[in-house]
Design goal:
globular; Serine Threonine Protein Phosphatase 5, Tetratricopeptide repeat; 34 helices; mainly alpha
Length: 566
């Protein structure tokens, strides 16, 4: 009766006013779920359940929608009802696991029959081990860790969690021994794994070793959190063990671990999100789980939900700048560039010593055609970038683009060449500088060499292949230009610039009817394109009226060096 009442309460709270018919609500829910609109899906499924309260399939769909929203409280009574009906549901098992942890039912969770009541074998094995920690059965927990460590593919993950569990128990020497033996494998080399071990070393009065571990792992590429840890370690502070201070936190780490593994293996973002949500529920202060959740929501097109997550990180948290950068990116995807700029400008005031803040601001300003402001931001980022940092090439490249769009070709070329001095074979830079030289009708032989190297590095980039065709065109090597331009159109079939260029090349070799066809295609793509384009619709229309030769004459340009009239 208690479960039935709870389900009724969920339905009453969630059902939208003026709900549709059962079929209409179900179909609307399915459509919303397909589009990752979890909030709408939950509402429509709840409306459908109000008309068919015993429909287990509807309950299961609603559980998944609520779980994707992070509303374990709404999903839990529905999950209990599903299991009580005798049906199997992974989503229901996930929320029931969270519910049992909420209630401190560690002994019962450890005794759960994995084959019929579990989530998945790998997850369940670690859940059982950590539940035994929560039930104060330490020997049983260690035996469980050892038992599942022999399973194929599980050795490193299990060893990592066993090390964390030993840290939870205050057995730091044993925990560090596992790390030193490289039992945790790749998990020990993740950012989170390195920080966990640094905390363990600090508990062993080995702060100097902890600092060396961080320095060796990240090669000096720190961030505010790592900088803070190093400062505290250098000051002689003993770092608390924060990664799994309790069994509940350890269980949250299990779900985070599998969410991170699924993300790394490029599994379904939706499925991965479910694990991240459980991790967040079990440990709300888990910043890495929060950032992963927000990133997954962005990938699923749920930018508003992602922004809600990013906002939950306190301004004093070392990861605050990461969250604000994420929030700005989500705002840009929502076409709220002005708000994104405001977020980044405020971040530049509070975290002005971070190059990434200024470079990101530069990117947004450049996208809004605020070239001078973008140049200033990139310059500040370069000032903050250490000499010898290879990442500086991208800042020079970005600032060069801003200079180029602002009409300063001299400074643009200086930046592009500075980028190439750092990263000589970078195809984007080679292409951009080579193409710029072609457009300026300067140093064409060097431009050709650059673009040929760019094509060799990125043979499937339609834009770079287009550049090669265009330099051939500028050099009067029209037959060679045709080959490259046709290839470029294969790779970028609906790009207006590439189609316009192919039209010009066809005209140059006398294939005038095909040239007009390509110009018409280019014009149609400009009309439907939402992106910036170099293709000038008025110029293309004029070419369709009088041909390329006449347009060049009107512009005072050099005539084509060769033309085969049909």
């Amino acid at each position: 009766m208690k479960t039935a009442s709870a389900v009724a309460l969920v339905l009453a709270l969630a059902a939208p006013a003026g709900a549709q018919s059962l079929a209409g609500s179900y179909l609307a829910g399915r459509s919303a779920a397909v589009n990752n609109d979890f909030k709408a899906a939950a509402e429509y499924y709840s409306a459908a359940m109000a008309r068919d309260a015993g429909n287990v399939e509807l309950m299961d769909d609603a559980v998944l929608a609520y779980l994707a929203l992070g509303r374990i409280d709404r999903a839990l009574p529905l999950g209990r009802a599903i299991i009580a009906s005798g049906q199997r549901s992974q989503g229901a098992r996930m929320v029931l696991t969270a519910g049992m942890i909420d209630d401190g039912e560690y002994a019962a969770l450890a005794q759960r029959e994995i084959q019929t009541e579990g989530i998945s074998p790998w997850v369940d094995g670690l859940v059982k081990a950590w539940s035994l920690i929560g039930a104060d059965d330490v020997d049983g927990a260690m035996a469980q860790f050892d038992a599942i460590s022999t399973e194929a593919g599980m050795t490193g993950v299990v060893s990592y969690h066993k090390a964390l569990a030993l840290g939870t128990l205050g057995r730091y020497a044993e925990a560090n021994a596992l790390f030193e033996g490289d039992g945790p494998g790749a998990a020990a080399r993740t950012r989170r794994g390195v920080i966990a071990r640094a905390e363990i070393l600090s508990q062993l009065d080995r702060n100097a070793d902890a600092v060396k571990l961080i320095a060796d792992t990240f090669n000096g590429a720190t961030d505010p959190e790592l900088d803070s840890l190093i400062q505290r370690l250098d000051a002689g502070e003993t770092l608390p063990f924060t990664h799994a201070p309790t069994a509940r936190a350890g269980l949250g780490e299990v779900f985070y671990t599998f969410a991170a593994l699924l993300r790394a293996e490029q599994a379904s973002d939706y499925y991965t999100l479910l694990y991240a949500r459980i991790a967040r529920h079990l440990r709300p202060e888990h910043v890495d789980a929060l950032l992963l959740t927000a990133d997954l929501l962005e990938s699923l097109g749920q930018n508003e939900l992602a922004i809600d997550e990013y906002r939950k990180i306190d301004a004093n948290d070392p990861a605050y700048h990461v969250a604000e950068l994420g929030r700005a990116a989500a705002l840009r995807r929502l076409d709220k560039a002005d708000q994104a700029i405001e977020v980044l400008e405020q971040l530049a005031k509070s975290h002005g010593d971070l190059a990434v803040v200024h470079s990101t601001l530069g990117d947004v300003l450049r996208a809004q055609d605020e070239e001078q402001a973008a140049i200033e931001a990139y310059t500040r980022a370069l000032d903050l970038t250490a000499e010898g940092d290879n990442r500086a090439w991208f800042l020079h490249f970005s600032r060069g683009i801003a200079h180029s769009r602002d009409g300063d070709t001299v400074k643009a070329e200086e930046d592009f060449r500075a980028a190439l001095a750092i990263n000589p074979d970078q195809p984007q830079v080679l292409n951009y500088l080579g193409y710029s030289l072609v457009e300026e009708q300067r140093k064409l032989d060097e431009a050709l060499d650059m673009i040929e190297r760019a094509v060799a590095a990125s043979p499937d980039s339609g834009y770079i292949v287009d550049s090669l065709g265009w330099v051939y065109f500028r050099l009067g090597r029209y037959p060679e230009a045709v080959v490259q331009m046709e290839r470029a159109v294969e790779l970028e079939a609906v790009d207006p610039v590439v189609n316009d260029h192919l039209g010009d090349v066809y005209w140059a070799v006398g294939r005038k009817r095909e040239a007009q066809f390509q110009w018409k295609r280019a014009l149609s793509f400009i009309q439907f394109s939402t992106s910036d384009t170099e293709a000038d619709p008025d110029r293309i229309r004029r070419k369709l009226e009088v041909g390329l030769d006449e347009v060049l004459a009107e512009e005072g340009a050099e005539p084509l060096t060769l033309a085969n009239d049909d």
